[in-house]
Specification:
Chain A: This is DNA excision repair protein ERCC-8. The complex is a heterodimer. Chain A is mainly β. Chain A contains five helices and 31 strands. In chain A, strands 1-31-30-29 form a four-stranded antiparallel beta sheet, with no helix packed on it. A four-stranded antiparallel beta sheet of chain A has the order 3-4-5-8, with no helix packed on it. The two termini of chain B are 81 Å apart. The chains are: A mainly beta, B mainly alpha.
């Protein structure tokens, strides 16, 4: 480590490379943190966790007892056992007692991506609430047609402020915070929508996974979906590694879809959404033109999973999509081609009845997947289990990876929020520990 | 180290296997020690041991799991490496030992399974207390079992600290009480002393009086010359005794008054002063005050007083004051009744009332007379009465006498000693540090003042007024009057009516008698009716009984038939059953390769086998192909039997 620092100092190593080396090194050492406890005030299963995107400091958790809490994960509220264990108590809790609080379980709690002044909760009581963090008051309320399973806001959006909501209903709704109205209804799924996820590369692209096993891609500027993932469509291996390149060129290329994919597209909805500017009527096959563009794929019954799609996660570069289904399968999709990459993830058992929240590391090397009572870290490209995190005593619902601290937060049905962090390199204040853990052979 | 060779793990594996193969409730200490010593010096052995133990925990037998858990605990408390290895799979270990997962219940012998569970919970708490801060998993597991699954933990540490807290609290409170007592003592030390001194003086005076009276007794004057004549030791002893006996002042009519006073004073001395002095001494010994000057002086004085009191008490006893002079009185009582005089008792009454007006010294005497007359039951009340009388005489129109006139009459007793006092008393501290032989003793149990008052409330029994039963006074034929005492009706002379000197009734009331007779006739009619009814009922009962008898006879017959049927069936089924049993036995015997285990009286499998129900047995047999046919026939037979039982006549 010291050698690396010196190399960095003399300029042998690029700073970017150095940072990545350190981060991945830390990630590989993640284990259950003994000296960081999040004191969960929830009386029910923790369904959703998110660290805020601006500071990486405030953890938002939503639980099935209709409570939301926010924790400061960087500054502990108090210490126990002689400063050995840092306790992070919630900064505030909103529960059923709140006059505008949710009545039933909260399934989704997300931060407003721009700052920590707002957060959004979706609940089984059919409502999506937008909260002011500082006053803990509801400032906006959307009534949905059914139980809300998942809400999402685009992290890369600059021109819209839409909450995508997946509900019991077959339609995905987009709620606009600025106007307080539904601006779009995306129909195509044949069953409730378990997960929604915004593309990280395009602010207009939304990915949804439904209980019907379909994963659909939507361009929110248009009606209908433009891509439906089919598990029978597969390609061998991923493309040549473009991770580094894409990261370097991320800002310049806002649309990585502009490659020659029309040839590969078998789903041939022929719209070429990405290529055509908005509003321009595609001048292609006349037979298809008669149909509404969105309706084309709605006739397609291709499925990505047998059973419901319970979790979706787009990699940081927006090139790949990891999906988890109630068939206990994990699939990695190439977003560009819409094909299954056939990465064989080791057989696991996944929770089937609830949407699960997946997480990936920054360089998308590892994917954290809640597998019943454990969380497994899979190597994204080989599908091998690299670590199994055991600590929860009941099913894990969600995990959230803090890119800044390389910490993993997991929440489960046992009402706990566990912190998994890299073990300390230099165990500081070793001599001040109250009672050192050591052998004690009396005979 | 020899154990670090490849394959060295077999030793620890064998040891652990051997240790968990017993049916005892403890791991063999020698084996345990061997395991520990093997594991201590070798990390690889420790890893193997942990692996082996986890494998054993997965065994489908609670006893094996239990013993494995005991070994795990031993190693867990000692080795850090073992802890880190084991904690990786803590949830598995807990689910195997506590059985909190519904799909993983604890295996077979349920009694041991429950022990296993309680032990596991206890261990988890212990581990959490000792190593919880180093291992988040331990804290999580503990928290989950405690707060989510609501398991009852023994809570050892919290209990201990609570007990400590309680003890401190108790000490503090007892100290406070002692200090309070000490303060009160400080306040009225002089009065206490005075009281005691006055009593002592009075006793001394009484004794003086007695002895001065005895001065001129002739026996006392026997000189020493005579003493010389008694040579033999026995005789001398006898003489000494008789001398002593002679020296004793005997109670007689002259000194009765003095004796009574003495007795009362003695009682006061023993029951109140002596006890209080003892108590004060113990208080002074135990109290912890900054300024110990008063304490020391008071303690000294109290000890002096006690030393002074002891000879006095002895003297009193010598003088013939038994602690309770009732036995003496009983004798007198006996004498009185043996006389068997049926004299008019009213004659005594006026005497008693007269005597009440006597001065203080005579009071006790008077009540003695009363006592003789009316029996021991109302002795005390009389005593109080007399006291009241006395006071009235002393100062007839003072405030005190007025209050006394309307004050309730209370029996004399030790409760009066604590009259109106407002003290808290420690229940279990009497100056003796007794170990709690009969169980846990709550040292700080305090009896609050109101409770003390409640306890000291003297139960007053309702006493019937002594009814003077009138004599019949009917004139007798041979002259004189009938002396029978009956309540209402004399069997010879009819109802008792007031009569004059010659026995003539004063006023006649014939109407009352008549009513009485009328009532009588009514009663007769009633009785006759009742008799008729009784007879009829009895008849009915007899009829019913006959019916029942008939039924039972019938039932017995049916039962006999059924029994016969069953016997036939059993005989039919016997052959097949025995064969299958023999087969299963064979299978088991071949399974038991281990001769040792076979020789053991009680093996692990036997523990499991013990609880086999008939259902299981049937299932076993069903599995056995050769026995299947037999079982089927047997089951159909049993079905038949059920059918037949329902209709026993058709067989």
């Amino acid at each position: 480590m010291w050698k690396e620092i010196r190399d960095r100092e003399v300029g042998k190593v690029q700073s970017n490379y150095f940072v990545n080396r350190i981060a991945s090194d830390r990630i590989s050492k993640i284990e259950l943190s003994n000296n960081k406890d999040i004191v969960s005030p929830h009386k029910g299963a923790v369904n959703s966790l998110q660290v805020d995107l601006t500071e990486g400091r405030y953890l938002l958790s939503g639980a099935s007892d209709a409570s939301v809490a926010v924790y400061d994960v960087q500054r502990a509220t108090d210490y126990e056992a002689g400063g050995l264990i840092a306790k992070h108590k919630s900064i505030f809790v909103v529960d059923k007692q709140h006059e505008h609080g949710h009545k039933y379980a909260i399934t989704s709690a997300i931060w407003y991506p721009i700052d920590t002044g707002l957060f959004i909760t979706g609940s089984y009581d059919h409502h999506i609430n937008v909260w002011d963090t500082n006053t803990t008051q509801v400032i906006m309320n959307f009534k949905m047609p059914g139980k809300v399973y998942r809400t999402a806001m685009s992290t890369s959006a600059t021109s819209h402020m839409l909450i995508a909501a997946g509900t019991e209903d077959v339609q995905v709704r987009l709620c606009d915070i600025t106007s307080g109205a539904f601006v779009h209804t995306l129909s195509g799924h044949r069953d409730g929508v378990m997960t929604v996820e915004w593309s990280t590369s395009s602010e207009w692209v939304l990915v949804t996974g439904g209980c019907d096993g379909a994963i659909r891609f939507w361009d929110i500027r248009r009606a209908g979906c433009f891509l439906l993932l089919d598990q029978s469509q597969s390609q061998l291996g991923r493309r040549p590694p473009i991770l580094k390149r894409s990261m370097a060129t991320k800002d310049s290329t806002s649309k990585p879809y502009t490659k020659q994919r029309a040839a590969q597209r078998k789903l041939a909805n022929g719209n070429g959404t990405k290529q055509s500017p908005i509003g321009k009527v595609p001048a292609k096959g006349s037979a298809r033109q008669r149909l509404h563009p969105g309706m084309l794929s709605s006739h397609d019954r291709a499925t990505a999973h047998y059973g419901a799609v319970t979790g979706l996660k787009i990699t940081e570069d927006g090139m790949y999509l990891l999906s988890a289904g109630s068939d206990s399968r994990l699939r990695l999709w190439d977003v560009e081609s819409g094909c299954n990459t056939l990465v064989n993830f080791e057989t696991v058992r996944l929770q089937t009845s609830k949407p699960i929240q997946l997480a990936t590391t920054q360089d998308s090397a590892l994917a954290f997947v809640p597998c019943m009572r454990t969380v497994k870290a899979f190597d994204m490209w080989t599908g091998n289990t690299s670590v199994t995190f055991r600590g929860h005593y009941d099913c894990v619902n969600c995990c959230c990876f803090s890119l800044q601290d390389q910490e993993l937060y997991t929440g489960g049905n046992d009402r706990q929020i566990l912190v998994w962090s890299p073990s300390k390199l230099i165990p500081d204040e070793m001599n001040e520990r109250p009672a050192e853990d050591q052998d004690n052979w009396s005979d | 180290m020899e154990y670090e060779e490849p394959g060295g793990g077999t030793k620890v594996r064998a040891l652990i296997g051997k240790a968990t193969e017993s049916t005892a409730s403890e791991v063999d200490p020698r084996l345990l020690k061997a395991i520990k010593s093997v594991v201590r010096y070798s990390d690889s052995e420790l890893r193997i041991a942990s692996q082996t133990l986890m494998d054993l925990m997965k065994r489908d037998h609670s006893q094996v799991r239990y013993l494995a858990l005991l070994i795990i605990d031993e190693l867990f408390m000692r080795s850090k490496l073992f802890r880190t290895i084991l904690i990786e799979n803590l949830d598995l270990l807990l689910s195997l030992s506590v059985g909190f997962r519904r799909n993983l219940p604890l295996p077979a012998p349920p009694s041991i399974a429950s022990i296993l569970r309680s032990k596991a919970i206890e261990f988890l708490e212990k581990w959490n207390d000792s190593f919880g801060i180093h291992h988040r998993q331990l804290r999580l597991g503990f928290d989950y079992l405690k707060n989510t699954l609501r398991y009852q933990f023994p809570n050892i540490q919290a209990n201990a600290s609570r007990r400590e807290q309680e003890r401190r609290e108790r000490e503090r409170r007892s100290k406070e009480i002692l200090l309070n007592k000490y303060e009160t003592l400080k306040a009225n030390f002089s009065t206490i002393k005075e009281e005691i001194h006055s009593t002592v003086d009075e006793i001394g005076e009484c004794l003086d009086i007695l002895h001065s009276k005895e001065e001129h007794m002739p026996l006392d004057a026997l000189d020493d010359e005579e003493f010389e004549e008694f040579r033999s030791s026995e005789l001398r002893q006898i003489r000494l005794d008789s001398l002593k006996e002679g020296e004793r002042v005997h109670e007689n009519s002259e000194n009765k008054v003095v004796f009574d006073a003495l007795r009362e004073l003695y009682k006061l001395l023993v029951s109140k002063h002596f006890a209080s002095v003892q108590e004060w001494i113990s208080v002074l010994v135990r109290v912890d005050v900054a300024d110990s000057r008063f304490r020391d002086s008071a303690l000294k004085e109290f000890i002096d007083i006690r030393n002074q009191l002891q000879p006095l008490k002895k003297k009193c006893e010598e003088a013939g004051c038994a602690l309770l002079s009732t036995s003496n009185d009983d004798g007198e009582e006996q004498d009185f009744w043996e006389d068997g005089k049926v004299g008019p008792i009213e004659s005594i009454r006026p005497i008693a009332s007269n005597k009440r007006t006597e001065p203080l010294d005579a009071a006790s005497n008077s009540h003695r007379v009363n006592y003789v007359a009316l029996g021991s039951s109302n002795k005390e009340s009389n005593d109080i009465d007399t006291l009241g009388h006395k006071c009235k005489e002393v100062d007839p129109n003072s405030m005190k006498s007025k209050l006394l006139a309307e004050a309730p009459v209370v029996e004399w007793g030790s409760s009066l000693d604590a009259w109106g006092s407002n003290r808290i008393v420690l229940a279990n501290q009497r100056g003796l540090e007794l170990e709690s032989h009969w169980g846990r003793v709550d040292y700080d149990a305090v009896i609050p003042a109101d409770k003390i008052a409640e306890l000291n409330v003297q139960a007053t029994l309702y006493r019937e007024q002594q009814i003077e039963i009138q004599q019949c006074h009917a004139p007798l034929r041979k002259g004189g009057l009938c002396e029978r005492r009956d309540l209402r009706v004399c069997p010879f002379h009819g109802p008792i009516v007031p009569r004059d000197e010659e026995g003539k009734p004063l006023n006649q009331s014939p109407s009352r008698d008549k009513i009485h007779i009328d009532l009588g006739t009514d009663l007769v009619e009633e009785l006759a009716k009742q008799a008729v009814k009784n007879v009829r009922e009895r008849d009915k009962e007899a009829a019913m009984k006959r019916e029942v008898d008939k039924q039972t006879l019938k039932r017995a017959k049916l039962a006999k038939i059924r029994e016969h049927n069953e016997a036939v069936l059993r005989n039919a089924a016997l052959a097949s059953t025995s064969r299958s049993a023999a087969i299963s036995g064979d299978v088991e015997a071949t399974n038991e390769e281990n001769l040792l285990a076979r020789n053991k009286k009680q093996s692990l499998s036997s523990m499991l086998r013990k609880k086999v129900t008939s259902k299981d047995r049937i299932a076993q047999k069903l599995l056995n192909t050769r026995a299947r046919d037999a079982t089927i026939t047997q089951q159909t037979l049993s079905d038949d039997a059920v059918y037949r039982e329902a209709f026993p006549n058709q067989w």
